[in-house]
Amino acid sequence: MNLLLSDDYLLQDYPENITNTIRSGHSTCVRFNRKGDYLASGRVDGTVVIWDLDTMGVARKLRGHAKNITSLSWSRCGRYLLSACQGWTAILWDLQTGKRHREVRFRAPIYAAELHPWNHHQFAAALFEEQPMLVDITDPIDVKLTLPSVQKRANADADAATKEKQAKEDARHMTTAIVYMATGDHLLTGTSKGRLNIIDTRTREIIFSEKIAAGVVTTLRLTESGKVLLVNAQDRIIRTFHVPNLSVPDLDPDTIQLPLEHKFQDVVNRLSWNHVTFSATGEYVAASTYNNHELYIWERGHGSLVRMLEGPREEQGVIEWHPHKALLAACGLETGRINIWSVTSPQRWSALAPDFAEVEENVEYIEKEDEFDIHPQEEIQKRRLDAEDEDVDVVTIPKDHDDVESFRMPILFNLGESDSEEEFVNVSLGTLRRKSPGGEDVEAVKEEKAPAKKAAGTARARGKKK
Amino acid sequence: MSALDTVGGTSGPEHPSKRRRVDDDSIDSTPRDGSPDPLQGHHLSIRRGRPQSHPGSRSPRASHLDGDDGGNQFRSPSPLSPRGSRPGSRESSRTARRARRYSRSGSGSPSVSRSHSQTPRSHRSRSHSSSSSASRSRSRSSSSSSNRSLGSQEQQTPRLSDAEPAPAPSTQRTHITPQYRRKLALRGHTAAISQVRISPDGRWIASASADGTARIWDAQTGEHLDTLVGHMAGVSCLAWAPDSNTLATGSDDKAIRLWERVTANPAHECGDGGRTPVANGGGRGGKLRTETRGGKTGRGPLLGHQNYVYCLAFSPKGNMLASGSYDEAVFLWDVRAGRLMRSLPAHSDPVSGIDFCRDGTLVVSCSTDGLIRVWDTSTGQCLRTLVHEDNPPVTNVCFSPNGRFILAFNLDNSIRLWDYVGGTVKKTYQGHSNKGYSIGGSFSLLAEEDQEAIDGNGADRGSQIQPFVASASEEGDIVLWDVKTKSVVQRISGAHKGVCFWVDVNGGIMVSAGQDRVINVFRQVSTLPNGRAKLQPHALESETPNLAAAADDELQRQIQEEAGSPLRHVKEELV
C-alpha cells in the first residue's frame, strides 16, 4: 500500500549497504518466508529463531534440535517451517503453537531438506553419505522413500565384474543438493560428481541427468517462477540454467534439455563461492565468497558484475535475497550475526510540506484568470462541497496480490524470558546487538524441559554433555 | 491543501484559485445542513476556545502566504521554486505555524481539559509550554477535583438536542440503512470516558476513562469483565490487538500499558520500554534472573513519551504499536519486546489521532496543527502530508476499510474523506457538531444480503457491503452518514448527556461513550432484503425522542446516584 505513495520503484533494485545487524546466538543459515515478513535463522546450537522483519525483533524461538541447523524451508502458507540439522533429524514446526508438528529421524546428517512447494506434508532431504529421501508425513507414521543419485545404466549385457565396479562407483555418488521444481512434481538434485538430475517424484526415477560442473554441486536455487536454476559448485563457477517445462502431458524424457545461460566466476582472484541466491525477480544473482568479505552481485541479463557489497570484516556464509524487496541477509561465519543489506530511500522533503513541490528547474508561473478573485465564503464552501460528487469506494480491496496467506503469527510477550541467555543492547533504532559477544549461550534445553529451565545451571550442564 | 496534485500537473479545476482565498476563510465554515445551531457552537467555543471563529486567528498562515512574495510563487500551482530557495521558505512556513499557535493561545479562551484542567501543565517543556491552548478537550481529568468540575460543566451545558432537526428520513438510494438501536447501557466508570472500542472479533468492548482505568465488557451481555488498573492518570486512548487478546492503553502518565484480555494482567513480563537491557548476568541462574527481572522492571509499561499519550493503534499483524503523544512525536513500538523502534518527529502540535492501514505499511497521524501525515512504517519517512486549505485542526484519523482513503475529523464541524494518493478531499460529512473536543468515529460496514451485519472486514462475501461513517457529536448525538451521498442516514439524538466522545462500530454492534460516564451499546436492527426495516414495535418507539430523552433522564439519575458509590457496576437492559 505504501507503493502508492513512494517512489521506491525508482530506486535501484539491488541492495546497497548494511542497514541492520541482528543477532541471536550464532546463526548458520537463514531463509525468508514466501511473503517476506519473517526470516528464519538456524543456529549452531540447534535453535531456530524466527525474526520479524517489521520490527527486526525475535518473533519465535523453536527449540528441539541439538546440533547445527543446516537448512530451513517454509511452507507456502508460512505457518510451517521445516528445519534440518546435523543431528540426523528434521522437524516440521507449527508456528501457530511453536511446537513441533512432526519430527523425522534419518540415519545420517542432513545437508538440506526442502518442503514440497504446495504440500507441507512432503519433503525431500539430501543426506550426508546416504542416498536422498523423499518423505511423506501425511500419516502419523512417516513414509521414507529412497531416491536415486545415479541414473540406471542400460547395460544389461555387461559382465558381472563391470556391474560390480559400476555399483561400487554408484554407491559413492551422493546427492548433495536438492530442490523441488515449481509444480512439485519433479526434483532437481545435484550430486557430488557435478551431475544434475531431474527426478520424477511419482516414479522416483531419474528422467534426466547431465554433468554440469567439474566439482561437487553445493547449492541449487530456483527463481520464484521456477524457470531459472542457479547452481553453485565447488569448481568456483556459478551457473544459471533455463529449466524446461516438465508439466506438458506427453513428456518425453529424451527431449529434455537444460540450456546453460551464464557462468559467473572471478577469474582474477579465483574465488570460490560459499552460497548463492537469486534476487526477488531472478534478475540478479548474489554470492558470498570463500575467504573473502565481499558479496558479489551479478546482473543476469548481461551476465555482468554490478556490485561488490562491502560488509563487516567477516566472511559471509549463507545469503538470502528477500522475496520481493532489494534486501539481502547473510550470516557472518565468525560471529554468527545476520547482516542485512538494503537500500535506503532519501526523504522527499516535499512530502512534509504539501505546499511545496520539488522541481528540477525554474518554472514560469502563470497566474490563473480567477486566481485573486474574491468570493464570499459561503459560495466557496458550497462550491467545494458540490464538487464532491465523485463516487468513492472505501471497501473494495484490490485483488492484485494473493492474500491467501491467512496465517498470522501469534504475538508472544514472553520472549524476554526465553531470550534470557542473550543480553540485547539497543545499538541504534531497530538494531540489536548482543552485549557480550563472547558469551556462552549453548542452550540445548528441549521444549518439555522448559519448566526446568529455572534451574538453568543444571540444564546448561546437561546441554553441554549432549 | 491539495497543492501536490495541483502542482504535479493538472491545475486543480475543482479548487480554483485557492491560495488567496485562504485569507477570506477566516470565518469558520458554516455547515451546510445547519444542524448544529449557532448558539451551541458559541457555547462550546467558550469552553474550548477554538479560534476559528476569530478572524485574526486564521490569518497567520495566510499572512505567511501573503508576506512571502516569492514564496507565493513557489507554492503556486505552477511552481518554479529553485531548489535553493526551499529552505528559507520552509523556515518561514514553520514560523507561520508557530504564529498560528500563539494566536490560538491568544484567543484568550481557556483551554480545555483534555485530561487535566489547567494545573499540571508545567511539565510541558516546550517553547510554547506557556500556552495552555494546545491542549485539547476530551474532558478527562486526572484528579477527582477536575472530575467534579467536569461534572458541573456538564450540567451547565444546555441540552440542545431538541433544537436539532429531526433525523433525516432515510430516503437514500441504498438498500440497507443503519438502524442501530440501543440495547445496553454500561456504567461503572467514575469519570468521563474518552474512548471505547470493540475488539476485532466483536466479542468485547474496552473503554478508557479519565478515572485512570480501562474496563473490559462483554459485547453481548454487557457484563463487566475486568478493570485494568495501573495507570497513574487518566487513560486517553486504547487499542485492541488484531487477535483481540491484547489491549493497549495510553495515559496521561506518559506510559503505554499492554494488557492480556483474559487475565487483565500486564502482558509484558519484562517490558521496560527498551531503555535498559534485560537483566544481564541473570542468565546464569534462573532464580536470580527472575528476581532481577521482577525487581527491576516488573511487568512494566512502555515508557518513552515525554508527555501525555493521546492515541494508539496496533498494526494489522499485531507486531507493532503506534502511539501519538502530546510531545508531538509518533512512536512505533515493537510489541513483543516492548521496545521503542522508531520515533518520528511528526507534528508541531499534540498528535491527536493515529491509524495503520490494512496491510500495515502506512501509518497516518494527525494533529491539531491541521496536518495529516502519512508515514512509511518500514522506513519511518513521511510520504505525504495532507492539509485542508482552511487548515482546521484534525483531532482523529482512520483509514478506510480498504486502506485507500483517510477519514479525518476536523474541528470545524466536518469530517473529511481524503484520497491520500491524490491529496484531495473526496467527501465532507457535516451535520454533527465538533468544534472543541477530539471526538471519534469509525467506518461502519453493513452487508446487504445476509441481514446479519457482517463483522470486521468480511469483504470477501459475495454480498454487497454498504459503508457508512459513524461519528460522535458534541451535543451527545451519534450521527451516521452514507459514504457516497454524504447524507445523514441515522441520527441517534441524545445518546449521551453532554459530549459524546467516541463511537466505534464493528459490523452490527455500535458502542458510544461520553462525558456522562456511560457506554451505550447499539445493535443493528436486521433489515429485510428489500431494504425495509423489520423492526419490533417497541424498538421503533424507543427511537422517538421522548422515550430516548426519558431514558436519558433515567441514565442521568442513575449517574447521580452512583456518585456515592463509584465502583458499582450497573448493567441495564434498555429494551
From TrEMBL, chain A:
Q: Where in the cell is it found?
A: Nucleus
Q: Where are the WD repeats?
A: 28-61, 62-103
Question: Where are the residues of the annotated region Disordered?
Answer: 432-466
Keywords from the UniProt entry = Nucleus, Repeat, WD repeat
Establish whether keyword Repeat is in the entry. yes
**Top-level taxon in the UniProt lineage:** Eukaryota
PROSITE patterns, alphabetized: WD_REPEATS_1 (PS00678), WD_REPEATS_2 (PS50082), WD_REPEATS_REGION (PS50294)
User: What Gene3D superfamilies does the record tag this protein with?
Assistant: YVTN repeat-like/Quinoprotein amine dehydrogenase
Q: Give Gene Ontology CC terms.
A: Set1C/COMPASS complex
Q: Where is this protein chiefly located? A: nucleus
Its name, as the record gives it, is SWD1-like protein
UniProtKB/TrEMBL annotation, chain B:
Q: Does the keyword Zinc-finger apply?
A: no
Query: Which segments show compositional bias classed as Low complexity?
Result: 75-87, 104-120, 128-149
Q: Taxonomically, which superkingdom?
A: Eukaryota
Q: What's the protein here called?
A: Mitochondrial division protein 1
Q: Which keywords does this chain's UniProt record carry?
A: Coiled coil, Repeat, WD repeat
Region Disordered, as annotated, extends over 1-180, 267-298
Molecular function (GO) terms for this protein are:
histone binding
Give me the stretches of Polar residues compositional bias.
Answer: 150-159
